[in-house]
Amino acid sequence: MPHVVTDNCQRCRFTDCVTHCPVQCFHADDERVYIDPEVCIDCSACVPICPVQAIYDSLDLPDAYAHELVINAQRSHLLPVISAHLPPLPTAESRRAELGL
Ligand code: SF4
Ligand code: SF4
Questions:
Q1: Does any ligand 1 atom lie closer than 6 A to the CB of residue 12?
Q2: Which residue range forms the structural domain that includes residue 17?
């Protein structure tokens, strides 16, 4: 089962995760990233890296985020791969504070 990005990433997009992924399965839009479930090898390297705890193994995905399985699959196939670190979005620190992290 693949790993999944949740909307904790929304308005953060710190992109620490993408530089730790060995198979380049992250895709990004202007607000967050998504994991391609067909490419993810379930190594879990990205999970502890995310400063806003946005990434889950789908086996551990809370029910509140179940819809993210479809969102990650659909959006990742429409967006370019991101494998290099980008500056966090200007809203990243306020979003992290909003999440209590
Ligand atoms: S490290 Fe977390 S917040 Fe940053 S892009 Fe990855 S999932 Fe989003
Ligand atoms: S679990 Fe591994 S392969 Fe999957 S997105 Fe995270 S770092 Fe990439």
A1: yes
A2: 3-90
Are the C-beta atoms of 29 and 12 separated by less than 8 Å?
A: no
Closest residue (by CA) to atom 2 of ligand 2?
43
pLDDT in tens, 64-74: 999 999 999 99
Q: What is the mean pLDDT of the chain?
A: 95
45 lines ligand 2 (CB under 6 A): yes
Domain at 24, CATH number: 3.30.70.20
* pLDDT over threshold 90, residue 53: yes
- Asked if residue 96 is part of any domain, the answer here is no
pLDDT at 1 > cutoff 80:
no
Domain-embedded: residue 100: no
Q: No. of H helices and E strands in the chain?
A: 2, 4
How much is the average pLDDT of 86-101? 92
The rounded distance, in Å, linking the Cα atoms of 35 and 91 is 22
Whether 95 is in a domain gets the answer no
How many angstroms does the Cα of residue 94 sit away from the middle of ligand 2?
Answer: 26
